[in-house]
Design goal:
Shape: flat
Number of helices: 12
Low-confidence stretches: none
Strand content: under 5%
Helix content: over 70%
Largest sheet: none
Radius of gyration: 24 Å
């Protein structure tokens, strides 16, 4: 296990480095810069701003200076918001994004797993058809369309829930449903197909032949193996939910990190783009690593030597 952890740590570090290098390269390939705008700015001002942020240094030096700051958990200053740093954006926005992500994650797991199990156990019956029809709609309809429909019905027409902000717990309900719609549908379909495959295995037929009750066959023998594919995709799903949906945060005016990232892209705020990308990538890689470790708990046959 020790060697495996060391190898994974090295792989994660290399992956983050390559992501940072690719992001940095793409930003500088695109014409323009962080101080390029429609307004006419004198060359003297542009030169002063460029010198202030060391943008006149060679690109390789800029990159490694930035990586040095990241190793100290310093993502640098924002080029567009005076007196603000990328760390400020993360610290201020992450509590809202993480809260919405955790609430949505619980909502997704409580709905998707039972949906998939019921659909598999009622395979070919009306329950299966209804649940999979709902899941198909959830996969095909974009989240911003779901958000707009929810706002129209529950806010505009009924007046039950707020349309923006998270000043109270009610403010999380509509964003939670809109952001979790795709994940619920995808995980439910995956849970159904995985459980159906496991239920057709020889050891399940053997358990039934021994007279073991159907409840024990499903919950003790089949469900554990059926959860492995679900756990595999759960890592990226958790990372996506914890870092928030940029579109959903914009629609519901939630002050999370999504708004900062969208603004940084449109304004060519190099450090904010780099910081947000590395931050998201780090969470995604960490979630995938944790999921890999959970394999050992779900299936004792899986070991990391």
């Amino acid at each position: 296990m020790g060697k495996y952890l060391v190898k994974r740590a090295i792989m994660m570090a290399v992956t983050l480095f390559m992501i940072a290098l690719l992001t940095f390269s793409l930003m500088h390939i695109v014409p323009g810069g962080p101080f390029t705008s429609d307004k006419q700015v004198s060359q003297a001002v542009l030169d002063a701003m460029t010198k202030k942020y060391n943008l006149d240094d060679p690109l390789w030096k800029q990159f490694f200076d930035y990586i040095g700051g990241v190793l100290r958990f310093d993502f640098g200053p924002s080029y567009k918001y005076q007196g603000k740093t990328v760390n400020d954006f993360i610290v201020n926005g992450m509590p809202y994004t993480a809260t919405l992500g955790m609430v949505t994650l619980v909502f997704v797991l409580l709905i998707s797993i039972p949906m998939g199990i019921v659909a598999a156990l009622k395979n070919g019956r009306w329950q299966d058809m209804v649940l999979m029809t709902v899941a198909t709609f959830g996969v095909t309809i974009p989240s911003f369309v779901i958000a707009t429909g929810l706002m129209y019905i529950f806010s505009y027409k009924l007046g039950w829930l707020p349309t923006y902000g998270v000043d109270s717990w009610k403010g999380y309900i509509l964003p939670m449903i809109a952001m979790g719609g795709y994940s619920i549908s995808f995980l439910a379909r995956l849970m159904r197909s995985s459980l159906l495959e496991v239920m057709g295995q020889d050891y399940i037929r053997t358990a039934r032949a021994k007279g073991i009750s159907e409840f024990r066959v499903v919950w003790k023998h089949a469900l554990r193996n059926a959860l492995i594919p679900v756990i595999t995709v759960l890592g990226p799903t958790i990372a996506n939910l914890l870092t928030g949906s940029f579109v959903i945060e914009k629609i519901f005016a939630i002050p999370g990190i999504g708004g900062y990232f969208v603004n940084s892209v449109t304004q060519r705020d190099y450090t904010t783009i780099m910081g947000m990308t590395i931050f998201y990538a780090a969470i995604l890689i960490a979630m995938i690593f944790i999921v890999d470790l959970f394999y050992c708990l779900i299936d004792p046959r899986i070991k990391y030597e």
